[in-house]
Design a protein that fits this description.
CATH class: Mainly Beta
CATH topology: Jelly Rolls
Distance between the termini: 9 Å
Radius of gyration: 14 Å
Number of strands: 9
CATH architecture: Sandwich
Helix content: under 10%
Number of domains: 1
Strand order of the largest sheet: 6-3-8-1-9
Strand content: 35-45%
CATH superfamily: Jelly Rolls
Largest sheet: 5 strands, antiparallel
Number of helices: 0
Length: 113
């Protein structure tokens, strides 16, 4: 669900993005995501998922139990790594131009329904 879905699909919206992410152990976004203008919520479905917010080690979040979550607002730099095979549900609002629902090599997949 999001702006990246074709306009004739009921899931096409600029208001919110919903993504189901499948990340094998070791999968990572090592480069900082910067200057993002959306609020983000990441919920762990399974696995162990590490998120670093800012350069401050105190802003390190490890999602290790089903239902653990992290959230941050616009402008918070971050990167992540799957410490184990992980499934995460990501919700962002609003859905920003230039994002993709499926990012080859990063394990993110959009789902129908």
């Amino acid at each position: 669900m999001g702006r990246f879905i074709e306009a004739d699909d009921a899931r096409a919206t600029a208001e919110v993005e919903v993504k189901w992410g499948l990340h094998p152990a070791g999968d990572a976004r090592n480069q900082w995501v910067t200057e993002e203008g959306a609020t983000t919520l990441v919920i762990l479905i399974s696995g162990r998922f590490h998120i670093q917010l800012s350069n401050d080690p105190a802003d390190e979040v490890v999602l290790s139990r089903q239902g653990d979550y992290a959230t941050w607002g616009p402008g918070v730099d971050h990167h992540w790594k799957a410490e184990e095979d992980s499934v995460v549900l990501t919700v962002r609002w609003p859905s920003l131009p230039g994002r993709a629902g499926t990012a080859p090599g990063r394990g993110e997949q959009s789902t129908s329904g």
